[in-house]
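REQUEST FORM: STRUCTURE PREDICTION
Request ID: SP-0412
Submitted by: Lab K.M.
Chain count: 1
Length (residues): 130
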Amino acid sequence: MGQITLRELEKMDFFKEIPKDILQNLLNESKVVSYKKKEVIFHSRSRTKTVYFVYSGEVMLYNLTKHGNRKVIFILGKGRLLNQSIVSKKPNALFCEAACPVQVIEIAEKQFLQLMEQSHALTRSVLLWQ
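STATUS: Completed
RESULT:
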């Protein structure tokens, strides 16, 4: 999969209000990664230093019960932010797994936080879409 375009990013609800220059910087710093069905994107209680958005497909956010069964909390699709702990620096509260073949936009947390400092619209989107 090649790099995502500015036009494709602008069509996603999360990014609609973000200025073009911030979106272009986000594109420059990000990559699109493919995951197979049932592949874990991140684990509960782990601390990731990456921010994830669904580009295509769907992911499941879930916990494990005391008996080891999955309890699905959310199923998220295109344009959705996957991290719940971007600003808090806390470990992930949930597991994230590809529900089908999925492509995810990944950007280093440090660069994403710098973009949030530059754009109130991006910060607002993070707060609204969590």
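NOTES: The radius of gyration is 14 Å.
Reviewed by: T.R.
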